[in-house]
Amino acid sequence: MAEQAQEFDVVVIGGGAVGENVADRAGRTGLRVALVEHALVGGECSYWACMPSKALLRPGAALAAARGVPGAAAAVTGDVDVAAAFARRDEITHHWDDGSQVDWVQSTGISLLRGHARFTGPRELTVEGDDGPVRVTARRAVVVATGSAAVLPPVEGLAELPPWTSREATSAQQVPARLAVLGGGVVGVEMATAFADFGSAVTLIVRGDRLLTGAEPFAGEAVAASLARLGVSVLFGAETRSARREADGVHLDLGTGADLVVDEVLVATGRRPRTTELGLETLGLEPGKAVAVDDALQATGVDGGWLFAAGDVSGRTATTHQGKYDARVVGDVIAARFDPRSSAADSPDGATPGDRALAAADERTAGPWSRYRATADLGSVPQVVFSRPEVAWVGLTEAAARSKGLDVRVLGYDLENVAGASVFAADYAGHAQLVVDDARGVVVGATFVGPEVAELLHAATIAVVGEVPLERLWHAVPSYPTVSEVWLRLLETAGL
């Protein structure tokens, strides 16, 4: 079959949430955009990460919330209905059918190319699909948005099991009686919680001495205590030396004498940028590594200003919401810079109207917060862990702030002492903390731990991004009785 050839203004490699947003924004000034995806359009978040994992976690959280309310607790007569939870998860993932996502792509005028993309040179790719190879040329820009893949640690026999990763865990159709989870990060903590709710005997194996190392230490401590109450065995300072599957299950050697025997092993020890098979070496970049970018998400290692990267693949972000933020930035940069309605032909300095629009936007901000720069990646990233209790934070932890040389004040308050918490549940427990840059009097970090505290996070994100002075936050009156009243208590703790 003869090789086909197609030409576009912009080619986006990766049709997940990040790639979809890049393609949508990049085409808004009339650029012709192609989206390349070899698997399901919608990507990891829609089918194997954010959406299915939260669907699996929600039944247990709802039952726990009901049991904490006198008057409702008596109505709870059973445990999680696993079959119904799986069925709901299947609905949310559209039974792993991307038809509705494909319909959306086509409705926007974006061209969908099914297959694996590989660079053959600057702005040149080959897309290997079911109908044969297609040679694709990008006249203006290429954006790499291929996400990340789970990493298996170098444990003897582990790959041969084979183990679960987050994909197998979130798409599971059966609940293992015994489950070992390797890793104490977000995926490990969330899946340990979900499968404990489903009745698994879960062992969480953590090499370090705490959970959720990216959060404040008190957050990991609260989650560890909660997992223990759920019946999860949390092993700190533990290292898996080897793994083998035998008739009675998977045997894990932890160096303690007797093997830990389980039915399945979930590896949640980290992820790597998915760049191994993209042909990056033809561009002078290293396969398997992140594509380094500047704040406009333009690749710093490639000349010509045509290559961009967004999402996990850039090494800057590790959440869907932050990846989509980066996608909006890079999509807008491309739409403005390569606006087909503009031309540099008559400009003495060779700059297009798009170039000048970017420069003017940067100047108008009188600071770093241009819509054409992914500034929030540097210190305003929000993160939620849907454990029980939930953990939500944004910006810098105390340790990170001090490592940057900031003179900080830490303000803390127990959430159970807020009126709204006592209404929410009789046994409500949690903690809120602000990290304040004393020199400027602004919040640079916030952490909340407790039931449904994720809903508190966006107010904190606005405070951090907006660099709102504490004296002004004093006039942001929280509604009563809500858990948000903790903002008033925190400001009172600051002496206001």
TrEMBL record:
Per UniProt, NAD(+) binds at 183-190, 270
Q: Which coenzyme or cofactor does it need? A: FAD
Q: List the disulfide bonds.
A: 45-50
Domain FAD/NAD(P)-binding: where? Answer: 8-322
The domain of life is: Bacteria
Keywords on record: FAD, Flavoprotein, NAD, Nucleotide-binding
Q: Which InterPro entries match?
A: FAD/NAD-bd_sf (IPR036188), FAD/NAD-binding_dom (IPR023753), FAD/NAD-linked_Rdtase_dimer_sf (IPR016156), Pyr_nuc-diS_OxRdtase (IPR001100), Pyr_nucl-diS_OxRdtase_dimer (IPR004099)
Q: Give the residues the record marks as binding FAD.
A: 54, 146-148, 312
Cofactor: record remark: Binds 1 FAD per subunit.
Extract the GO molecular function terms from the UniProt entry: flavin adenine dinucleotide binding; NAD(P)H dehydrogenase (quinone) activity
Name the Gene3D superfamilies on file: 3.30.390.30, FAD/NAD(P)-binding domain (3.50.50.60)
Name all Pyridine nucleotide-disulphide oxidoreductase dimerisation domain ranges.
381-487
Among PANTHER family, the record links this protein to:
MERCURIC REDUCTASE
Family membership noted in the UniProt record: Belongs to the class-I pyridine nucleotide-disulfide oxidoreductase family.
Indicate what this protein is called per its UniProt record. Answer: NAD(P)/FAD-dependent oxidoreductase
Which organism does this record belong to? Answer: Cellulomonas humilata
